[in-house]
Amino acid sequence: MIHADLHIHTTYSSDSAIPPKTLVEQLVAHNFIKVAAVTDHDTVKGCSVTRQLASAYPDILIIPGVEISTPQGDVVILGAEEMPPLPWNVESIVDFARETDCVSVVAHPFREYGMGELARNYKVDAIEVFNGASAPAANKAAQNLAKEMGLPGVAGSDAHQPSELCTVYTQVQASLDVDDILKAVKNGLVSVPPFGNSIHF
Ligand SMILES: [Zn+2]
Known about the structure:
By secondary structure, this protein is α/β, with parallel strands linked by helices. Helix content is 26%, strand content 23%. The protein has five helices and ten strands. It has helices at 20-29, 45-54, 90-99, 136-149, 178-186; strands at 2-8, 33-38, 61-63, 65-70, 73-78, 103-106, 126-131, 153-156, 170-172, 190-191. A five-stranded mixed β-sheet has the order 3-2-1-9-10, with helices on both faces. Strands 4-5-6-7-8 form a five-stranded mixed β-sheet. Strand 7 (126-131), helix 4 (136-149) and strand 8 (153-156) form a beta-alpha-beta unit. The longest helix is centred in the C-terminal third of the chain and has 14 residues, at 136-149. The protein is globular and about 40 Å long. The structure holds zinc ion.
């Protein structure tokens, strides 16, 4: 079982103040969250830099990823090392994720830039059921959506400030290996603890 914060922005996102080095240091210091997905806005540059830094520490793992802005809402692609080809819409992102053995996740469906009920129209792999920057009601609605769609639910801090890192995490029945973790998420071998009220508020 690993514990992973599956939604983090580094300074490669224009609105984040978390240098890759700070994220790596946080994982090294944390007593049980040793895995994080770097999901910058519309770029995978931060992932490669962060993975490079993390490679010095055998007990932590960075999952590459990206949070793609589509006209319908944000989609996180876990496992993405390259950018999906344009144009970006939910369907093209979901297809890209499937073709590249990545995992498509509907980010914060019931918040700004979330796709809400539209998610039901797409063959996404998972729903973000707890986002550290979403209000409790929005997370509750996301949990219901995942349940109704029969999809795995994942959690991430959506950290943009160092203090927000690892405030939320997903428990994954997998080893410390990117492919193993991606497969486990797809197969629903995940659980999200009851965090209570969201953390950033
Ligand atoms: Zn985000």
